[in-house]
Amino acid sequence: MGIDPQQGVEPLTQIEYIGSAYHGYYVPQHFLTGESVCYCIGAGEDISFDTELKVRYDARVYIFDPMPEGILHFQQLRALAHTDQRLTIHEKNPFTYRITPDQLADIQFVEIGVWDHKGVLKFYEPPREGYPSHSVYLFKESGKYIEAPVDRLSNLMNQLGHTAIDLVKIEIEGAEYTVIDTILEDKLDVKLILVEFDEVHNAKDKRFHYRIRKTCNKLKKAGYVLIHSTESMKRSFLRRDVFDALKAQESET
Q1: Cα–Cα distance between 212 and 214 in angstroms, integer?
Q2: DSSP characters over 144-165
Q3: What pairing do the DSSP bridges indicate for beta strands 189-196 and 113-115?
Q4: How distant is the alpha carbon of residue 119 from its chain centre?
Q5: Who's near 149: CB < 8 A, 6+ residues apart?
Q6: What's residue 81's pLDDT?
Q7: What does 98-139 look like in DSSP terms, one character per residue?
Q8: CA 145: distance to chain centroid?
Q9: 203: helix, coil or strand?
Q10: Per-residue pLDDT tens for 54-104?
Q11: Residue 31: pLDDT above 70?
Q12: For residues 39 and 195, is the Cβ–Cβ distance under 8 A?
């Protein structure tokens, strides 16, 4: 049985799209500020959403990705930021980065993957040529991999000195199930969880609908509200107390 992307959505009226057409997300308006802590897990060759968090809100942005494609893309953006050139990504529906050198310098890029324990894991190379993302969960049939460090999100928060996170974006090629489990198991103070369920595009087996539904149900049971979902299962989950507060603000305007 498939999943109706819009089933269970409790929409907010005041919501806005941030980032490129391919790697952007919907977030509530009047939610993020310059004091907001945002963790963006998974970079690849598109950090449009991550950088726009800094450009639009001056948020405190942390990007986590140990893979060479993500590291090189960030380095390329940093190099071009000091010139008159602007980096544009995607031929169809192009996005041009508008972040300044000073803003980019405020973003911390952490070359560590997020998983359920501290260690070193194999990240498998995708079988499709030109696909810019490795995975600890998918693509094992390729037999090619890179080893890289990983750690649990709660450990990374402790290392960075954070007791709460306003926004977590998760784009990690099937590893999202495990990371979301750790957020709920550790009862982390996370207000907004944005997640791409990658198996919609790269199914490991025929039970991927079950895995997606199971994780979404866990989030709802833990007190998160599904406020937006795309047809390709990029979903925004907002903690109920924050949802209620924003809903109340909407009714006053």
Answers
A1: 5
A2: -EEEEEEEEHHHHHHHHT-SEE
A3: unpaired
A4: 21
A5: 66, 111, 112, 113, 119, 120
A6: 82
A7: ---HHHHHTSEEE--EEESSSEEEEEEPPSSTT----BSSS-
A8: 22
A9: coil
A10: 999 999 999 999 998 999 999 999 999 888 788 999 999 999 999 999 999
A11: yes
A12: no
How far is 97 from 19, CA to CA, in rounded Å? Answer: 9
Cα-flanking dihedrals φ and ψ of residue 123, to 5°? -105, 115
Buried b (16+ CB within 10 A) or exposed e, 31-48: bbeeebbbbbbbbbebbb
Tokens of 181: 């489990």
CB 42 within 8 A of CB 174: no
Look-up of token digits 């199971």: 214
The residue among 169 and 8 whose pLDDT is bigger is 169
pLDDT at 139 over 90: no
Q: Is 211 exposed, middle or buried (0-12, 13-18, 19+ CB in 10 A)?
A: middle
Query: What does the chain come to in residues?
Result: 253
Q: What stretches of the chain show up as alpha helix (H) in DSSP?
A: 48-57, 68-81, 101-105, 153-160, 176-185, 208-221, 240-252
- Token couple for 16: 């806005």
Instruction: Please tell me the predicted confidence (pLDDT) of residue 130.
Output: 59
Residue 148's closest CA among 157, 160, 129, 135? 135
For residue 131, give both structure tokens: 């696909």
Residue 1 has pLDDT above 50, yes or no: no
Q: Give the integer Cα–Cα distance in Å for 237 and 192.
A: 6
> 81 vs 245, which has greater pLDDT?
245
Strands 113-115 and 108-110 come out as unpaired
Q: What is the pLDDT of residue 131?
A: 59
